[in-house]
Amino acid sequence: MELSWKTLRDLERSHGAAFFLLDLDAFRANYNEFLGAFRAIYPRSRLAYSYKTNYIPRLCREVDRLGGYAEVVSAMEYDLALRVGVEPTRIVFNGPYKREDDLERALLAGSIVNLDADYEVTLLEVIARRHPQTWLTVGLCCNFALEDIRPSRFGFDVEDEGLDPVLARLRAVDNCLVAGLHCHFSTGQRSVRSYAERTRRLLDLAARCFRDHAPRFINVGGGYFSKMSPALRRQFACPVPSYGEYAAAVASEVAAAFPGADGPELILEPGAAITSDVMRFVAKVIARKRVRGRDIALVAGSIHNVKPTLHDKQLPLRVVGAPGERTEAAAQPVDLVGYTCMEHDCLYRDCQEAVRPGDFVVFEAVGAYTVVMKPPFIQPAAAIIAHEGSTFAVARRAERWDDVFATYSFSASEEALPATARRAAKARG
Fold first, then answer.
1. Cβ–Cβ under 8 Å, residues 283 and 363
2. What is the rounded CA–CA span in Å between residue 169 and residue 121?
3. Rounded distance, CA 354 to CA 25, Å?
4. Which of 63, 362, 384, 397 is the Cys-Cys partner for 68 at CB 3.0 to 4.6 Å?
5. Which residues have CB under 8 Å from 180's CB, separation 6+?
6. Please, where are the H alpha helices in 234-378?
7. How many other C-beta atoms are found inside a 10 Å radius of the C-beta of residue 6?
């Protein structure tokens, strides 16, 4: 959707000088394209959307509507999945930290729980004794060496038959079913070769662990590259594979291992791959100045809104100019800086577009981790405006003072507060 200055000005009046725009049509297209690439090769593929990447409820509900699973790594995310209407049997519960009551709830509800460490096996044994009449279904997160990837901290070390003792403990539990294998690797490379290798390793382990029958699922995890503009792609030192290239690397291996119609479900856990390019961040240009030979434009956002992981990439952007003449000074290269008091708060270095106060700067490719990792540092979180075509709707209102400080304890007696604070508290009701 093309954005005019008038459209952005109207949104600013309703939602503040900075806000996100969420393109639901683009999200659906990414979901269908990603999953379609895998199903074209292996029809029993299933997408489990990574909530931790972007847990806007509108997105999570859309995944469920499209037939996908919810991939969660905490009780908070598990509760979100239930709140948006996901059936517990369609929730994949991963992550290194699962409390006993959270684990018990998910197991009893029939969710897909991938165990990560020995302490979880011990918890499962306790839970199984408490509920001897209920089948508890689990998967195992597997840790193994991959070429060009630093050792992962997640899962059970499966080298040198390291998985056998874990399997023996679980199979000794009368009401426990080990249904599949999972892996989770975090790497900057994200190469096709890496995904092919991890898939082969999981399939080899499955052949060893499930000798009499196929596993219910093989889960190769997430971490796939997203779609991106040529300018952003050039900033990566490695190739950026397409959805189809990932599918050829992963689904082809599974299809070759299980050529029949009764093979395991292939579970994929994309997050950034399908969300990164479906959100934009809009920030109004507040002021411009020159300091010691450096041109600086202050915008109504911060680096935490566009790249909270503090990566060094220059995100695609465009300037939507306010009506009026562009001066020569406005056309000088400028650093776009944020509202915080931190020197590193630079959203874009050496912007070549003409920038002046009253303009709007629109950052692309901000759909991954920006919403979930933005801290309540100096300013509350910005609004999120969803759009389908030219129709806008609030997906999240802008946070307010009360949202940030609702969990804090203040003085029990208003009389102990300064007069200005008493007046503010009274005004808030």
1. yes
2. 8
3. 31
4. 63
5. 112, 139, 140, 206, 215, 216, 217, 218, 219, 264, 265, 267
6. 243-257, 272-275, 303-306, 370-373
7. 11
CA–CA distance, 351 with 343 (Å, rounded to integer): 17
Distance (Å, rounded) from C-alpha 25 to C-alpha 19? Answer: 19
Beta strands in 111-175 (DSSP E): 112-115, 136-143, 156-157
The DSSP element (H or E) to which 338 belongs, if any, is: none
- Residue 21: its H or E element: strand 18-23
Strand segments (E) across 158-307: 176-182, 217-219, 265-268, 279-291, 294-299
In eight-state DSSP terms, residue 312 is -
pLDDT surpassing 70 at residue 17: yes
Q: Provide the phi-psi class of 80: left if phi over 0, else alpha when psi is between -120 and 50, else beta.
A: alpha
246 in Cβ contact with 191 (< 8 Å): no
Structure tokens at 424: 């503010």
Are 368 and 20 spatial neighbours (Cβ–Cβ below 8 Å)?
no
* Other Cβ atoms within 10 Å of 32 Cβ, number: 14
Other beta carbons within 10 Å of 64 = 17
Instruction: Say whether pTM exceeds 0.85.
Output: yes
Helix axis angle, 243-257 to 192-209, nearest 10°: 20
Residue 415 has pLDDT above 60, yes or no: no
Give the DSSP H/E element, type plus range, for residue 89: none
In angstroms, rounded to a whole number, what is the distance separating the alpha carbons of residues 242 and 228? Answer: 10
In this structure, what are the phi and psi dihedrals at residue 24, rounded to the nearest 5 degrees? -70, -35
Per DSSP, the three-state class of 273 is helix
* 368/338 Cα distance (integer angstroms): 19
Phi, psi of 252 (to 5 degrees): -65, -40
Q: Closest Cα partner for 219 from 359, 92, 59, 32?
A: 92
For 110, 205, 207, 258, the CA distances from 213, given in Å and listed in that order, are 21, 13, 9, 11
Amino acid at 156: F
Tokens of 129: 């004794």
Please state, in angstroms and rounded to a whole number, the distance separating the CA atoms of residues 243 and 265. Answer: 19
